[in-house]
């Protein structure tokens, strides 16, 4: 499941609607909505994101958070390390081969460390 899929499922459940009901309201199939929630589909298109935000009556600042989570929810990531250091390539490869064996707390530690580095 992606962060966006988890958020979408939580929002839908809080509203008390089924996938089928929501899918009909925003003009997609229930199968597509299920795939979004389970992380089998990447970030939805801009128009569909707008429909989702409208469906849940999300206010402006919360809509920005939804868009940011959607942007970080690609289930099949490609990291291009061409032109970067050998250490950068090693990091990308180590993450690729170990991510499925990391515990949730270890993943959170890595995310926190990377966010700290990113903020500078």
Question: Can you tell me about this structure?
Answer:
- With 120 residues, this protein is mainly alpha-helical.
- The protein folds into two domains: 3-71, Orthogonal Bundle (434 Repressor (Amino-terminal Domain)), CATH 1.10.260; 86-119.
- It contains seven helices and no strands.
- The relative contact order is 0.10.
Would you summarize the structure shown here?
The chain is 68% helix and 0% strand. It has 120 residues and is mainly α. Helix 1 packs across helix 5.
Second CATH tier, the architecture of the largest domain: Orthogonal Bundle
The CATH class of the largest domain is identified as Mainly Alpha
Strand content: under 5%
Low-confidence stretches: none
Distance between the termini: 29 Å
In quaternary terms, these chains amount to single chain
Q: Structural class, please?
A: mainly alpha
CATH superfamily name of the largest domain? lambda repressor-like DNA-binding domains
Count every helix, treating DSSP H or I runs of 4 or more residues as helices. 7
Fraction of residues in helix: 55-70%
The SSE string, one letter per element, is HHHHHHH
SSE topology:
Elements: H1 3-15, H2 19-26, H3 30-38, H4 46-55, H5 60-71, H6 86-98, H7 104-119
Helix pairs in contact: 1-3, 1-5, 2-3
Key terms:
120 residues; mainly alpha; 434 Repressor (Amino-terminal Domain); 2 domains; 7 helices; 0% strand
């Amino acid at each position: 499941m992606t962060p966006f899929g988890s958020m979408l499922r939580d929002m839908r459940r809080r509203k008390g609607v089924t996938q089928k009901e929501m899918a009909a309201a925003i003009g997609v199939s229930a199968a597509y909505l299920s795939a979004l929630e389970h992380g089998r589909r990447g970030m939805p298109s801009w128009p569909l994101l707008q429909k989702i935000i409208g469906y849940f009556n999300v206010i402006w600042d919360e809509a920005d958070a939804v868009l940011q989570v959607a942007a970080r929810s690609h289930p099949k990531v490609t990291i291009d390390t061409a032109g970067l250091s050998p250490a950068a390539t090693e990091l990308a490869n180590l993450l690729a081969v170990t991510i499925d064996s990391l515990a949730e707390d270890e993943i959170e530690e890595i995310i926190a460390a990377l966010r700290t580095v990113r903020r500078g």
